[in-house]
Design a protein that fits this description.
With about 90 residues, the chain is mainly α. The protein contains 3 helices and no strands. The longest helix has about 30 residues. About 30% of the residues are buried.
Length: about 90
């Protein structure tokens, strides 16, 4: 996949994942792209562990794999930052 393909796939996956996890208002376009691309690597790694094919071009399967990874990544970020903010306001 070309660099432009990664940017488009990453942007879409990151944006939809941010809406699913409730972080949409806190992220800009650039961060959506980064989250989507990192999510594609995470999703590809997870799918490969289970014997599937990860990212293999610009298609719906690659998008779903990237979306899965991006949702996992943002869920981890939400868990970590949610606890930190919660403890900060409890004092």
């Amino acid at each position: 996949m070309s660099v432009i393909g990664w940017i488009i796939l990453g942007g879409l996956a990151g944006w939809i994942a941010s809406m699913i996890t409730g972080r949409d208002a806190k992220m800009g376009v650039g961060m959506n792209i980064v989250v989507g691309i990192v999510g594609a690597f995470i999703g590809g790694w997870i799918v490969n562990i289970f014997g599937g094919i990860g990212i293999n071009g610009f298609n719906i399967w690659s998008f779903l794999v990237a979306l899965l990874g991006a949702v996992i990544l943002l869920s981890i970020v939400n868990a970590l930052t949610g606890r930190r903010h919660h403890n900060q306001y409890q004092s």
